[in-house]
Write a structure and sequence with these properties.
The complex is a heterodimer. Chain A is α+β, with helices and mostly antiparallel strands. Chain A contains 15 helices and eleven strands. The two termini of chain B are about 30 Å apart. The mean pLDDT of chain B is about 85. Classes of the chains: A alpha+beta, B alpha+beta.
Chain lengths: ~375, ~400
Amino acid sequence: MKYFMLIWAGLWRKKTRTVLTMLSIVVAFLLFGLLQGINQGIKAGLGDTGNNRLWTTARMSAVSSMPAALMVRMQTVKGVRTIAHLSFFGGYFQDAKNALPAFATNVDKLAVVYPELNITPAQIAAMQTTRPGALIGRPLAKKYGWKIGDKIPVGTTIWTNNDGSNNWAFDIVGIFDPTPQFERSPLGSAFWINYAYWDEARKFDNHRVHQFIVQVDNPAQAAVISSAIDKMSENSPDETRTQTENAALQSQLKQLADINFIANSIVGAVMFTLLFLTANTMMQSVRERIPELAVLKTLGFSGGTVSTLVLVESLMLCLFAAAVGLVLSAGAMKAVGSVLGPTRLPGIVIAAGLVIAVALAIISGLPPAFRAQRLNIVDALAGR
Amino acid sequence: MSALTQIAAVSAMNIRSLPQRIGTSSVVVIGIAGVVAVLISVLAMSTGLIRTLQKTGPDSRAIVVRTGSSAELVSVLMNDAALAIADSAGIKKGSDGRPLASPETLLIMNISKKDGADASAPFRGLTQDGFAVHPEIKITSGRVFQAGVTEMIVGKSAQRLYKGLDVGSQIKLRSATWTVVGTFESGGSGRESELIADKQTLNSAYQRGNGGQSVWVVLDPQGGLQTFKDAITTNPQLQVDVSTEKDFGTRQSAQISKILEIVAYVVGGIMAIGAIFGALNTMYSAVSTRSREIATLRAIGFGPVPVVVSVFVEALLLALIGGSVGALIAWLLFNGHSVDTLVGGFGGQLIFDLAVTPWLVALGIIWACVIGVIGGLFPAIRAARLPVATALRAV
């Protein structure tokens, strides 16, 4: 610690260079935090919530329908607690460009299976009394400025109703406030309508649903229950496929793009560039100071101390800049995260960032430190 | 000496001394190469995607879907609607005098990729007229499916990506077992990601009745899109939208290519800022190592302009090398590299090749030059302002 001022002075010997080096490290760690943060955040968002929920969809594909009657038989499987179902209504508000995430469901069960949606008993009762009712998440209500009591016209390209028209209308009977994690999920921002009403009113595909959400007593039994459910429809025209919610979400994400690969390759490219840059600057800085280091050695500093000084200087530079970069990326996550989902920089990313910063400091500081230790005083003072 | 010869002389001297500063100079080269490589790679993804979705067969092909359908998959067209569309004016007649219209069914199938991951493959049903409307579909091995039997042909990209689609093999997709009887190419369009079978067979295998999702037509070159559009929009029986294949493809790719572009420009932009700092650092140190030399030049009568220009020339040269290296890396690694992603509007997994086009390379080089110019600007000003006497005294 007593050499702090010495290291400090060494660091600021060339202000422009130090500031510029620092800024490029800051930028690199900003990118690192942002990319890895979003990457990890999406993974963590899938997290540990959905383990006691199984998703059953048609084996053909998640957008095909299955008989609603399957639910009665699924309920008999041991370990199954509650089953909710949902059907994709799609639809749009006013213009086909304003897609509306509307789903038909059995609301009473949905509220049990997804407590995260915070649907109240009063809202369930309201849905049961108003058949063409709709429950909407707070985010959706905010987006269009809808209030309870509003009648919302909904257009659709798929579902013709019994009047032969494609125009539907629903009354908003409740606005629920999902947990922050669910606020941005498709379920939390959905437009929920009564399945019973909708199924009677539509012209085709009646008595069929797109997805069952099965709440189980014990997540450990998920695999057994899944295969029991899928066995029931085996070799029928409506084979099902049951996975835990996490597995289903993960495979959906994987189909989208290999985000992991993209984030890692970019970070790899950034880190390589950065390492090169910092190592270069550190070596150059030491090279220029060789006569000064020789003076230090003449004054009695040991080779080890001089090389430690050089190494600590590099550590200070890298750690400080990395910390600033990570703080900035945490701020940036808050700003852009609202679009992408996760908003907090996960601890693991911060830890990984700091480890990388230390590694960077050591790799770029070691060669000059080594050189400082081996310095021949006479040659160095003579400028040879 | 004229100003130009001065500039040439100083710049040449400067560049000749570059090898002595190879370490610091390579910072600019590598930094810029990284930026350009990332920028070009991500944009190549978006370009490849757009290219695949917009690839059109005959110039004048149009697709008809139910009003308001943003994608083929969410459209529903019953048989009577399909027949009414085929009867409308403005459709080109085939050699047999019948209109070139192809009602099609599109389903999504869960299928395993070769690496075991799940994917959603588009499964299309075509009638016998389908091949006349899509003449670009060419069988490359095996034969066409027969109506009434569960046979299918698979696109070249689909065959590469999914498990068990070799010609002759059988694959169970939900309750039906299909025999792969052929492979096809379609000039790199989205069709190559699909499985294709006879429409009626597909419909009955999956209880689809006689409906479908869309009708593809070849427009009569005389009336063009407008005649056909007028004919079907004035028909009270029909509630449909029509667009040319190209417009439809553009709309499908719009969202995802926009996301990719944002990623490319945001990440590339942040990296570029980092590279600018690196370039500034390098150029400042280049100026400071050469300060005695610059001062000497100034003392013997060289003006400040040649000095400034020489620093610029050096920065630009390094940037150009870096940009070219980055573009080369992106091209070597990714051009023609096949990726697949779930495209909302397309309906299923779309397989496409990354495309590093000359325009992208040019864009990369432009970015490199901008970074080089900004990185060279301030050091060049410092070089020009160097107090001659002080610089000469400094040892």
